[in-house]
Amino acid sequence: MRKSLTLGILFMLLLLCSCANAENTATQIHFDTAVTLTADCSDEILSAAFSLCEEYDKALSRTRSNSEVSVINSGGKKASRNTLDVIKKGLYYSKKTNGRFDITIAPLAELWDFKNEIVPTRDEIAEALKNVDYQGVEVSGANVDTNGKSIDLGGIAKGYVSDRLLEFFKDKSVNGGIINLGGNVTVFGDRYYNVGIKKPFSTGDTSATVRLKNKSVSTSGVYERFFENGGILYHHILDTKTGYPVNTDLLSASVIGDTSADCDALSTICVIYGLKEAKKLIESTEGYEAVFIDKDYNVSFTAGLKSEKGILKLKD
Question: CA–CA distance from 172 to each of 35, 40, 42, 204 (Å)?
């Protein structure tokens, strides 16, 4: 039985707020997921925001044959400012984690076919691992030389786009709203929003609710794309040492902070690290907090959050 869930079908985060009548909302498909934008703005501004999503998708997608990333992976070197920014941010986290988060994971990602539920052979994985090494990527000015490596910005790109959309809305003097890129959620304006963190593998239940204002939250989880084969669950968060899905005691990690790109990368890193190491990482990273759901569905959170009447809030 097929059990692969994609973000285009099911959001990781469910917004549990009622939106004011003045707010305009729409959903389109970009980055292989449902993008929902809700803002106190005109149809024209909302349409322009979706046009930006399409531009970023054309630049940052690994699977589009003519995208900037695909051209770079094919030997091209020139990168636009935005693509360069995402690559640099990805390399920063690749270095910070000693390659456990690695933007050159593309050869492995291409092997794992979650749509058709294909488990690669050990030989295929071993061959792909030879080309996973972020240290092979060189950036000089606007030039990116992958030295035969292939980059995949999927672990950080949607968060980066969320940050750019926030800038766009602010430049247009939009008073407030919600940016939801398949689980990368940014809320802005004078209102508080209750953001529900999805219960892993459920069809709509939540495990926790976080009350936020002018913050971003990103969730990564082993339930986003997965299938079962021979009683083993194979998920899309891969171990750059073994080539197989990472062995972790976390079902999901949700990271809260001011910058969505960082939340995006950090949430994936947390799942890779596991609960103990992830909590230590976030509590040593100024300005960021996290909510964790472990393999037994227990919910825990970092020291900068508190629970009041069942709702998590940032401490003053």
Answer: 20, 11, 10, 34
At residue 111, φ and ψ (nearest 5 deg) are: -70, -40
Q: Could you tell me the maximum CA-CA distance found in the chain, to the nearest angstrom?
A: 57
Structure tokens at 74: 């094919």
Residue listed under structure tokens 């707010």: 23
At 11 the pLDDT is 37
Per the document, the length of the chain is 316
Residue 53, strand partner residues: none
State how far the Cα of 107 lies from the Cα of 96, in Å rounded to an integer: 21
Provide CATH code, domain 1-316: 3.10.520.10
First to last CA, the chain: 47
Q: What is the pLDDT of residues 54-97, one digit of tens each?
A: 999 999 999 899 999 999 999 999 999 999 999 999 999 999 99
Closest CA to 278 of 218, 286, 268, 287: 268
Give dist(CA 70, CA 66) in Å, integer: 6
C-alpha dihedral over 276, 156, 134, 242, to 10 degrees? 50
